[in-house]
Amino acid sequence: MVLVPYCRNSDVSRNIRDYHMNLPIDTFTFWEKTMKYIEESLANKTILITGGAGFIGSNLAFYFQENHPEANVVVLDCFRSGETLSNGNLKSFGHFKNLVGFTGDVISGDINDKELLLDLEINYDFDYIFHEAAISDTTALEQDLMVKTNVNAFKDLLELARKHDANMIYASSAATYGDAPSPQTVGCEAPQNVYGFSKLMMDHIARDFIKDADISVVGLRYFNVYGPHEYFKNSTASMVVQFGHQLLSGKAPRLFEGSDKIVRDFIFIEDIIQANVKAMHPKKSGVYNVGTGNPRSFQSIVDILQKELGTSYTCEYIPNPFVGSYQFHTEAEVASSKDGLGYEATWSLEEGIKSYVPEIRRLYETEVK
Ligand SMILES: NC(=O)c1ccc[n+]([C@@H]2O[C@H](COP(=O)([O-])OP(=O)(O)OC[C@H]3O[C@@H](n4cnc5c(N)ncnc54)[C@H](O)[C@@H]3O)[C@@H](O)[C@H]2O)c1
Questions:
Q1: Measured from the CB, is residue 239 less than 6 Å from ligand 1?
Q2: Residue 291 near ligand 1, beta carbon < 6 Å
Q3: SS3 helix, strand, coil % of the chain, rounded to 5?
Q4: Which of 47, 62, 155, 312 could be 9's S-S partner, Cβ–Cβ 3.0 to 4.6 Å?
Q5: pTM over 0.90
Q6: 78 lines ligand 1 (CB under 6 A)
Q7: Which of 255, 177, 259, 231 is nearest to 359 (CA)?
Q8: What's the rounded Cα separation, in Å, for the pair 95 and 135?
Q9: Does the pLDDT at position 183 exceed 60?
């Protein structure tokens, strides 16, 4: 069985791709499934990616560098400073290691800084803005900081987009749904925390803005994303990498009782990139789910990881302390996303994890051990 490391932009990745080109056709490779999602040239186009040193933003930056080297890509991120929130987690997770190999502009700055936004307005002429910067920690309790960063700064960035005539693609979230019933559908939200509330407020602002704007604005409600470059989100990274490292350290995986019935709509980073790129020219501005529509259990994650890592630990089951305030089933309604964006998930959980495992191993060797 061939394991294909996921590393998007480097000489190493090119060698891996060349190597896999020579393998039998039925051999699964990451590269067979990654592709350019738009054919148009982005020559003379300038792309701003806020939150570009984070998980999703850095993957987007490398997507453009690899597939559209003619584009001018500008990353804006406040990077991590060591400052923590009251829950003990970092205030921002941006990490330089997510951008090693990136050759575009990198700006360290805060989206709450109006002077910085004015500088961007004067010194650049953006064609597309991918807005990923946020307090992304769903357990953060600082309502003031959350609303300021996620909601208020978004309004300013929309005005920048209007002035530059730039299409806006921004990160909303499945957290807007809270405990709304499955399949989670745009228009039926019930956020349970200030993070979900902040993302829902962004969607309201976007809808209002679209009414008299000449640019397109698309909000993408990502479900549970996993994949390379998430490691530096620490304890807020997906359970895929967390279980992977538990197994590699020789520990039996610990799951909540009934984990074979607790399901989420897990989505591989490559499909998130697909949705973002397709959202550059939507059929219709609006808010769209980005999931698979095919929820899978936490038990499945562990089973797939054990298969790929060659381990066979007996799982340990612990009582779920969150019963009563816990989501047992998330499932994105995805037909509307296909209609409005032409987006459709292409990575199964098995394929995503298989492709990710070499990176999980590399991280274990270089960062965890
Ligand atoms: N990863 C997921 O499963 C998921 C699910 C739903 C929605 N989202 C949303 O997608 C976006 C990207 O998420 P991610 O997983 O890459 O998270 P992330 O934390 O890795 O990325 C967010 C980036 O924003 C930066 N940032 C935070 N505050 C900033 C500020 N004031 N100014 C400038 N930069 C700032 C951080 O340093 C970080 O690099 C976020 O908006 C998040 O809320 C993510």
A1: no
A2: no
A3: 40, 15, 45
A4: 62
A5: yes
A6: yes
A7: 231
A8: 14
A9: yes
